């Protein structure tokens, strides 16, 4: 139904990620439509059923962050399309779709970490460094870093896992000027966003940005989704400070992950999520949105 509605409005499917879909318009080659679904993935599988409202909530959070970051002192350009003569977005996807300008994307995932967790924690345990950045000894999972670090990843072809790389490798991939611009913009945005989140009782542990160049102006432009719980790790500041076993429980699909880990041996097709898990997960997304945008 959704694909039909989009096609009737001239939108052709371009490609799909695990949880989002990208469309092109026959009459507007300079634009794209990013449509967030209610799909949720964990342990590399897309699960059934979806989380009602997830696509709309994450889209609302992205839009809110784009607006915050576009205003003020260190404003950053973003890919949202505005103005006259734009094509219709079907009402049925409007709340989970972003109409964007087509950019020349840089093949670098711009990850910033203020805390050590996830793949950074794994790499640290093996090397005491992350993406070539040496770190102090004795850090534990979830510890705050002395200062936020830029830990880029190379965007692997669709379906493959992104690969952590050194800053020097990004210089080879995109050139020295762009590599430095990506790093500096990422660290600046992270500083702004984490301060704002902290004021609302939420720790922004890490996040991933994607940038492209605007083909008309050449300006470095923030793309993709931004600072959502799919692209970021958010923790509850109160739980973190209390130091209990749930102190690193993410404001995302943590409930789904925990349930799956207890009910699935990770072979074959994952089981269907119970209604209670779906409801609690939706509530968690809702709470993050309410807190951050309060
Ligand atoms: C673009 N993606 C990732 C997002 C998917 C895949 N403004 C832009 N211009 C050109 N390309 C992209 C964007 C953006 N955003 C983003 N891949 C290309 C992606 C959503 C669904 F399947």
Helix-strand layout with pairing:
Elements: H1 2-8, E1 11-16, E2 20-25, E3 28-36, E4 41-42, E5 45-46, H2 54-70, E6 97-101, E7 104-105, E8 108-115, H3 118-127, E9 129-130, E10 133-134, E11 144-150, E12 153-154, E13 163-164, H4 167-174, H5 176-198, E14 202-209, E15 211-213, E16 220-222, E17 232-236, H6 237-242, H7 254-263, H8 275-292
Antiparallel strand pairs: 1-2, 2-3, 3-6, 4-5, 7-15, 8-11, 8-12, 8-14, 9-10, 12-13, 14-17, 15-16
The structure holds ligand PZK.
Ligand PZK binds at residues 15-17, 20-22, 32, 34, 79, 100-103, 105, 212, 223-224.
Commentary on this structure:
There is one protein chain. The protein is built from eight helices and 17 strands. With 294 residues, the protein is of the alpha+beta class. A hairpin with an 8-residue loop joins strand 12 and strand 13. Helix 2 packs parallel to helix 8. The longest helix has 23 residues, at 176-198. The radius of gyration is 19 Å and the shape is globular. It starts with a helix and ends with a helix. The model has no long low-confidence stretch (mean pLDDT 96). It binds ligand PZK. Ligand PZK binds next to strand 1, strand 2, strand 3 and strand 6.
């Amino acid at each position: 139904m959704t694909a039909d509605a989009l096609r009737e409005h001239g939108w052709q499917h371009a490609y799909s990620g695990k949880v989002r879909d990208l469309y092109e318009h026959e009459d507007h080659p300079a634009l794209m439509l990013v449509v967030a679904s209610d799909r949720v993935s964990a342990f590399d599988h897309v699960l059934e059923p979806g989380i009602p409202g997830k696509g709309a909530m994450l889209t609302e959070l992205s839009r809110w962050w784009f607006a915050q970051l576009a205003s003020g002192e260190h404003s950053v350009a973003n890919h949202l399309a505005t103005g006259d003569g734009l094509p219709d977005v079907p009402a049925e996807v409007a709340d989970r779709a972003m109409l964007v300008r087509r950019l020349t994307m840089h093949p670098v995932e711009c990850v910033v970490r203020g805390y050590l967790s996830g793949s950074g924690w794994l790499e640290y345990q093996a090397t005491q460094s992350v993406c070539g950045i040496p770190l102090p000894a004795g850090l534990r999972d979830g510890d705050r870093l002395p200062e936020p670090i830029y830990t880029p990843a190379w965007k692997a072809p669709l379906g493959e896992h992104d690969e952590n790389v050194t800053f020097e490798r990004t210089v080879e991939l995109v050139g020295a000027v762009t590599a430095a611009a990506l790093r500096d913009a990422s660290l600046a945005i992270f500083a702004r966003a984490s301060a704002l989140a902290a004021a609302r009782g939420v720790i922004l542990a890490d996040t991933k940005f994607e940038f492209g160049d605007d083909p008309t102006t050449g300006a470095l432009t923030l793309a993709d989704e931004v600072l959502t719980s799919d692209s970021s790790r958010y923790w509850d500041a109160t739980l973190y400070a209390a130091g209990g076993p749930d102190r690193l429980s993410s404001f995302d699909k943590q409930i789904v992950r925990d349930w799956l880990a207890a009910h699935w041996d990770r072979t074959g097709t994952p089981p269907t999520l119970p209604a209670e898990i779906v409801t609690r997960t939706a509530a968690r997304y809702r709470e993050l949105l309410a807190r951050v945008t309060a």
